[in-house]
Write a structure and sequence with these properties.
CATH superfamily of the largest domain: Type I PLP-dependent aspartate aminotransferase-like (Major domain)
Low-confidence stretches: 1-5, 7-14, 98-104, 106-110
Mean pLDDT: 88
CATH architecture of the largest domain: 3-Layer(aba) Sandwich
Strand content: 5-15%
Number of strands: 19
CATH class of the largest domain: Alpha Beta
Shape: globular
Largest sheet: 7 strands, mixed
Distance between the termini: 72 Å
Bound molecules: pyridoxal-5'-phosphate
Number of domains: 3
Radius of gyration: 30 Å
Number of helices: 15
Length: 489
């Protein structure tokens, strides 16, 4: 006796796979298989079992074998039998712990850390639901029918106009709606710029050329995810060392471009010094190269004067890229590129052939959200909230770990704690042991960058602490836990 698919979906809407391989005769094998199916949740409470005859035919066993097996399981309380409604799985059968824990074949969900101080996300609980809903409603009500037809790869005009006004006013970007291309965020922008397109493919069907090509200088500390994305697109990334004034743009050489986070170096936290901002634009002009400006959290500045966009220095040499991932939510997948004129056509050609477009209704909602002033209000409110969070972190460290220097706190949603040389790994281990999740600086280092021992003090051992996401009631405990795992003086 082997196994059989009992397919009675037409009658009761479920398929059941029974394995009758247990020793001890057919009846025992069938009883055991049914018990197992109930226990592990494949047969849910209330499920109707097939009639004796059809199950017997399907399994190649005698009708009485099925009848006896059902009767035994009814007697044990696994099944119930009622005149007119057939035999069903009993309601009160407790599925086994395995069945309640996770569906079959799914790995068990890892338990999260007790205190999550990883950088990366804004406070999800502060998403401005009411204001967004109001914008969404207005956008939907006011949208002409053509909105629901095929879209424009550049993105909705309404959003590009709202962004042009906002970016000029708030970030000093020289923006024209015709130079703005809406995308799904920074990562998508990188793909559009560096991945070879197909529309411009050669006659032999090979990949077409990309809008931009490497080698590309990147800050020696940055998001590995972005570096890997570039590598996958065939772009060689070259690390550019950092010091207290930001990226060493004086070290730029024959690269075709440079990717920078000038407003708030990610992750070390400082702004690019004014002379370097000018110098990098001069370099790009001299070498016919391009500067990619990642303005990921430019809205969140606290103590220092606003740092405007480098793009304002030369819109023909700088691609300015932003998104709502830090200011509103990374779940919206909405971002933008402000492009030099000569790249607009190429980016639109690549974008036109890819399916990753931002939803038109979300684009129109964001346009309304910005134009109505709700975006400015939200950013101001979040700036105050994050500043309070930042202040509490700085105060806790001053009180409990005054020997640990905290840097990169004038802007953004994370801070960098400087550690004594050689202590980063052990501190991270101690933190993990205590249920505190955070990242070390080493995690962000370019694989070809010098080791911290040779590097500038600005990038030696350190912790990157995100302070935006722990819930308010748990933030104090998270700070206590953090201070407790820091190395002693
Ligand atoms: C350095 C950096 N750049 C860009 C982004 C934004 O990425 P995206 O727009 O793809 O969500 C982030 C994260 O929010 C980031 O940390």
């Amino acid at each position: 006796m082997g196994e059989s698919w009992v397919n009675y979906a037409e009658r009761v809407g479920v398929d059941l796979h029974l394995e009758l391989s247990a020793p001890g005769g057919r009846r025992a094998a069938l009883t055991g298989a049914l018990r197992e199916a109930v226990r592990d949740g494949r047969l849910a409470p209330g499920t109707r079992l097939p009639p004796y005859r059809s199950l017997a035919a399907d399994l190649g066993v005698a009708r009485n074998t099925v009848a006896d097996a059902y009767a035994e399981l009814v007697a044990e309380g696994w099944l119930t039998a009622r005149q007119g409604s057939g035999t069903r799985v009993a309601d009160r059968v407790e599925p086994s712990r395995a069945a309640t824990r996770a569906p079959r074949k799914m790995p068990p969900r890892a338990r999260g850390p007790r205190h999550d101080l990883r950088q990366g996300s804004p406070d999800a609980s502060s998403f401005p639901r009411a204001a967004w809903l109001a914008s969404y409603r207005r956008a939907l009500q006011g949208a002409p029918s053509e909105v629901f037809g095929p879209g424009d790869p550049a993105g909705r005009r309404e959003l590009r106009e709202a962004l042009a006004e906002y970016l000029a006013r708030a970030r000093g970007v020289r923006a024209d709606p015709g130079r703005i291309v809406i995308c799904s965020g920074f990562a998508h922008a990188l793909r559009l710029l560096f991945e070879p397109g197909h529309a411009k493919a050669t006659a032999r069907g090979g990949p077409g050329s990309a809008v931009l090509r490497g080698p590309l200088a990147v800050e020696a500390y940055g998001l590995g995810f972005h570096r890997r994305l570039l590598t996958a697109a065939g772009v060689r990334t070259v690390p550019l060392s950092l010091d207290e004034d930001g990226a060493r743009v004086d070290l730029l050489g024959r690269e075709r471009g440079v990717l920078l986070t000038p407003a708030h170096q990610f992750p070390t936290g400082g702004p690019l010094h004014a002379t370097r901002r000018a110098a990098v634009v001069d370099w790009a002009r001299a070498r016919d190269a391009v500067v990619l400006e990642d303005d990921y959290d430019g809205e969140f500045r606290y103590d220092r004067k606003p740092v405007g966009a480098v793009q304002g220095l030369d819109p023909e040499r700088v691609v300015h890229i932003g998104s709502v991932s830090k200011s509103l939510s990374p779940a919206l997948r909405l971002g933008w590129m402000v492009l030099p004129e000569r790249y607009v056509e190429g980016v639109l050609a690549v974008k036109g052939e890819r399916e990753a477009w931002a939803s038109v209704l979300d684009q129109l909602s964001l346009a309304d959200f910005i134009a109505s002033g709700a975006y400015d209000r939200h950013v101001r409110r979040m700036r105050q909230q994050y500043r309070r969070r930042r202040d509490r972190l700085v105060e806790a460290l001053a009180e409990h770990a005054p020997h640990v220097e905290v840097t990169g706190v004038a802007a953004g949603l994370h801070a960098v704690l400087r550690l004594p040389p050689g202590t980063e790994r052990s501190t991270l281990k101690a933190a993990a042991w205590q249920g505190v999740a955070l990242d070390g600086l080493a995690e962000f280092r370019h694989p070809e960058e010098r080791t911290p021992e040779d590097a500038d003090p600005a990038v030696r051992d350190g912790l990157v602490v995100g302070y935006a996401t722990p819930p308010e009631h748990a933030y104090g405990a998270a700070l206590d836990a953090l201070c407790a795992v820091l190395p002693p003086p």
